[in-house]
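Sharing a chain and its predicted structure for anyone who wants a worked example. Both blocks are below, sequence first, C-alpha cells second.
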Amino acid sequence: MIVLELNASNGGMVVRIFDAHCDVLYQLFCDQHLSFERSTSLHVTYDGLKQAGVTVQAFAIYIPKQVRPESRFFVALEMVDYFYEKIVSQPNMKMVRSKREIDQLQPNEVGAMLTLEGCEAIGESLIQLRTLLRLGVRSVGLTWNDANMVADGALEQRGGGLTKFGKDVVHLLNEQQCWTDVSHLSERAFWDVIELAHYPIASHSNAYTVCPHPRNLRDDQIQALIKKNGVIGVTFVPQFLRHDVQKTTVTDVLRHIDHICSLGGENHIGFGSDFDGIFETVEQLGNVAHYTHFIDELLKHFKEEQVKKFLFCNFYERIPQ
C-alpha cells in the first residue's frame, strides 16, 4: 500500500488524521447563520481542520428528534445540500468516498466523507437509503439512541435486535460496500449486525469496562469487531470517558485506548470525536484544532507507528472501496 504522507507535523513526524464522526451538519441545520469557515460556535471548522492537519473528516447526517417523521428524509437532503454547498465548496475541501480518492488528495487538501447517523431519515424505504448512498453516504449508523424501523437503540428499554427491514438495510450496505456503523445500537442489535454485516465499524464508542455507559462497547463486543476486521472510533464524549463528575482529560482517552489494545485491538482503534454533537469537551481537546496537542500526548505513551495507526491507518485500511 502506498499512501502519501499528508498534513500536520509533530516533532518531525508527519501525521495524518481520520476523524470518523462529527455533527457539523446538524449545527448548520440548527443555525444556518453559522460559518463553517471559522465560527467560534463550532468545534470543527475549515480553519480548524487546516490547523490540525486533518486528512479525512466524516460529516454525519443526524435528524433531530423533534423533526416530524414525514419531514425527516427532506431534512436529510437539506443536510446533504449543506455538505455540498458549505463544506466541500471550500477551497481545498474535497469529497472522498474511497481509498483511491483519499490517495489523490494533495498535501493542502482535506477529505470530507458523508455519513448517516441513524436510519430515522429513511423510515421504512430502501429507495430513500439508496438515494442517500448515491448522493455520497459511505457509512450508515442504524439507529440513534431510540428505536426506529431498523432496530432498537442503546437507550431503548426493550433492547430489541434488527427488524426484517433492518436486515434488508444491512444486506444493501454489504452490496454497496458501505460501512455498517454499530455505535448507538442495542446489544441485541449489535450482535445481529455482527452476524450479517461485511463491513462493521463503531464510529464513536468507548470501552464499557473503563466507563460503564450504555453507549459504550463491552469487551466481547470489542473483540467481535476485531474478529470482523472492524474499527472502534474512540470518542471524546466526556460521559463516555469516565462515570464520575470529575473533569475529563486526555488521560481518560488514553485509558480507553489502553484497554482496547489489551483486548488485541491495536490495529482496530481509530477516533470519532463527536465534535459539535457534544456540549462539554475534554480538557485541552475542545475542538478539532486541539488534535495537535492530543498527538503530542499520544506520542508520550505509544510508539510512533501505533499513533499513526490510531490516527489514520486503521480506519483508512478498512474503507470497503
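Comments welcome. The two ends are 14 Å apart (CA to CA).
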